[in-house]
Amino acid sequence: MAAANHSPSSPYSCAKDSGPVIPTSSLVTFLERVQETAFQTYERSKFDHKDFIDLSLKFDLSTTVKAFDEISKTENGSVSTKDFEEFIGKWFKSAGEDLVYVEPMDFETEPYGFLPKVENPEVRAWALEVHGLWKKLSREVSSSVHDHPELHTLLPLPVPGMIPGSRFREVYYWDSYWVIRGLLASKMHETAKAIVTNLISLLDTYGYVLNGARAYYTNRSQPPLLSAMVYEIYNRTGDVGLVKKALPALLKEYQFWNSEMHTMIIHDAENCDHSLNRYYAMWNKPRPEASAIDKRFASKFLNVNEKQKFYRELASTAESGWDFSTRWMRNPSEFTSLSTTTILPVDLNAFMLRMELDIAFFAKLVGDEAIAEDFLTASHTRKKAFNSVFWNENMGQWVDYWLNYGAEPKEPQTWEAQNQNQNVFASNFVPLWIDLFNSGLHSSGGKGNKKSSKFRPALCCWDCNLFDKFGTPMHMIVEGLWRSASTEARKVARDIAERWIRANYVAYKKTGTMHEKYNVEKCGEYGAGGIYRPQTGFGWSNGVVLTFLEEFGWPKDQNIDCN
């Protein structure tokens, strides 16, 4: 299965990687050494690379480094399990000790008006259990992180928030959108606002919202959904104060995503130029949170420049949130063919369009007509780009666009039909989430107005390696279809939502927990595979299922099992 209709040239050449790099901290660099030693010491099945990069120091860094250097090691860098574990216990606090549990300020066991459309008592009881998981995921940064940040990779945040769960012990960017949607279904408005406060804090400090609240994530962001979070909270609460606080930060984030490294210009068939966005991490080394593994993948490359370019692609793929789908690979069977920086992703540009529309709305709300007009104009310009660059008439879908390798951001590229990725991914349908695109689903003909019956088979055919992100882009697609005027589109939306609810319910009853990943081909089976073991908890999964239950409900007599 080719990534596009042609085979682009090899993504890695001997040319020097000249992109920006954000330096990491001395603590992160040292913990990468500890991680590498753990990788050499433990069996792969017993090793989670993130456990070692999340450790906190008991003593100052220089003293700890000196003690580490004095451990007796073999030629390959390993130490005895006994010596290594004694060293870790003496010199480090356990991963996760830098966060402390805190009772959510607005949690109620059964909030007033909770999921009124859920009439089935069995489903309602389960939904209340999922709602109760918010208490287990609530955390605040420990006082030690605020007082001695040099001892921690966790970054200080001003207020408590929600973590995804398990190995993901810190706040993450785009996960937070679905966490917030779930919190709103749970009537936890103040906790939802607190998450936005923390993300704005990161944006104010670094100039962009980090992938997550760790020192090793300062080199990349994640899909820009902050404006959507603010909109959803405002839509429920009418909190204009939150909008006023968020608007300057959103303008800053918009500037970041429209910087030179994140934009490319496409010259279309009608002689129009379109500035569109891509993922581009500010890093060309192994990702610290997975350094030992990244180095093994990069070992196939013979020179430093090739390795650096591969490392940048790894980090940029992580920035996409779709790590690691074959969507980003020139050769779907070869992991090291990742080429994320040479793709204009349809979903990222949909998120940018949503941001433009949100900022225009917020600016008008607070009385800044000039900003409102500018961003409304920008949104109309981007919509034209969707029709010219991403729309594939034969498929009836928007698709990713592959850039010609080696082009510079300032050099416009001429649009070529063969550069459209004609594989089907859930991301192809994310534009339906934007009202500008779903309004025409009731009719046929015209760009973006294909009958929704085309979506049903296509939505079942994307990259099945992407178990974990099924619930997130699919939520957006379902929401878009449900808002359309088409009876068929709304039927598809309900069908997808009910299948997702069933899958979550059956897996929960089997295992007693919510999962990060689900197997989209087998109802009730949770996902497997990937660089780390699938996790439980789980923030965005809880959020998606509560949001679906709030919107679609569950009739009293409707069966909930997979049959």
TrEMBL record:
InterPro entries: 6-hairpin_glycosidase_sf (IPR008928), 6hp_glycosidase-like_sf (IPR012341), Glyco_hydro_37 (IPR001661). SUPFAM superfamilies: Six-hairpin glycosidases. One of its GO terms (biological process) is trehalose catabolic process. Transmembrane segments: none annotated. Its EC number is 3.2.1.28. It holds the Pfam family Trehalase. Keywords: Glycosidase, Hydrolase. One of its GO terms (molecular function) is alpha,alpha-trehalase activity. It is an enzyme of class 3 (hydrolase). It catalyses: alpha,alpha-trehalose + H2O = alpha-D-glucose + beta-D-glucose. Belongs to the glycosyl hydrolase 37 family. This is Trehalase. It comes from Gossypium harknessii. The lineage of its organism: Eukaryota, Viridiplantae, Streptophyta, Embryophyta, Tracheophyta.
